[in-house]
Amino acid sequence: MTEVRAKKYLGQHFLKDMGIASQIANSLILDGETSVLEIGPGMGVLTQFLLQNPLIDLTAVELDTESVKYLQEHYPKLKVIEADFLKMDLKSIFPSKFCVIGNFPYNISSQIFFKMLDNKDSIPCLAGMIQKEVAERIAAPAGSKTYGILSVLMQAYYKIEYLFTVHEHVFDPPPKVKSAVIRFTRNDVSQIKCNEQLFKTVVKTSFNQRRKTLRNSLKPLVEAGHPMYADSLFDLRPERLDVAAFIDLTNRVEAALASK
Q: How far is CA 245 from CA 76, 145, 164, 234, in A?
């Protein structure tokens, strides 16, 4: 079978630099023998290095039928699932913990990370390549202009490491943006000290109007004039709050809602 044709609607940009592929494959932090799920392997440039690691029990999920056929022909021992990762029931495939890796399609990378959060107790490590701008945003500290929803939600449960930048010319076809390899390692927080669902809502609501102060951006949750807003905390914009401050904010919002 000849090489797979990159499909724009799937956001496919095939990595052709073997050195970078090897670096990505080696960026996972493994604890002994580990189940690993590769998302969107394409023609297997990353897959080939993962298969060489005796500690890795590899499964690949690929949506593109043409790529699946290519993988089955060139890597007959690889377990390939033809499916949409975003619609997969991960617990039925991996009853215990597993790591995630991939050259992730840029158009769904944020959705991949939100699904990862839903399965955070099963995923101790993720490493992969995404758009540079998104990687910088996720790894950004509080106070940064790029710090936002994904930064807070991911940093609540994972240590984030921006590993290295990847330039456009190492892809076929080359994307219009630079890429970056990022790693998430699960921290020791089993449960944050607030209502987890409300925490997500508070973070998202705060950043939906990120140029406004918390006093204004949180009005959809707690009506204006509530005594809660007398605190100077609400003079701040959301990017000034780290994870601990958002947990405190969530508890204040919950108390305010209970007092209605």
A: 50, 17, 29, 11
The CATH number given to 8-186 is: 3.40.50.150
Contacts by 61-64, CB closer than 8 A, 24 or more apart: 61/37, 61/85, 61/88, 63/10, 64/4, 64/7, 64/10, 64/12
Quote the pLDDT of residue 79.
97
Q: Say if residues 44 and 70 touch (Cβ distance below 8 Å).
A: yes
171 CB neighbour count, 10 Å cutoff: 20
In three-state secondary structure terms, 79 is: strand
Q: What confidence tens digit (pLDDT) does each residue in 161-202 have?
A: 999 999 888 877 667 889 999 999 999 998 999 999 999 999
CA distance 203 to 149: 6
**Total-model pTM:** 0.91
Compute the distance between CA of residue 167 and CA of residue 178 in angstroms, rounded to an integer: 5
Smallest CA-to-CA distance from 35 within 51, 62, 55 is with 55
Residues 170 and 246: their CA atoms lie apart, in Å, by 39
Instruction: Tell me which amino acid residue 35 is.
Output: S
Q: Where are the domains of the chain?
A: 8-186, 196-258
Q: Largest Cα–Cα distance in the chain? A: 68
Q: 14-15 and 171-172: which strand pairing?
A: antiparallel
- Those residues with Cβ within 8 angstroms of residue 85's Cβ, 6 or more apart along the chain or in another chain: 39, 40, 61, 63, 112, 115
Residue 184's alpha-carbon distances to 104, 111, 149, 163, 222, in angstroms, are: 14, 15, 16, 10, 33
CATH fold, domain 196-258, is Helicase, Ruva Protein; domain 3 (1.10.8)
As a whole number of angstroms, the distance between CA 168 and CA 171 comes to 6
Confidence of residue 107 (pLDDT cuts 50, 70, 90): confident
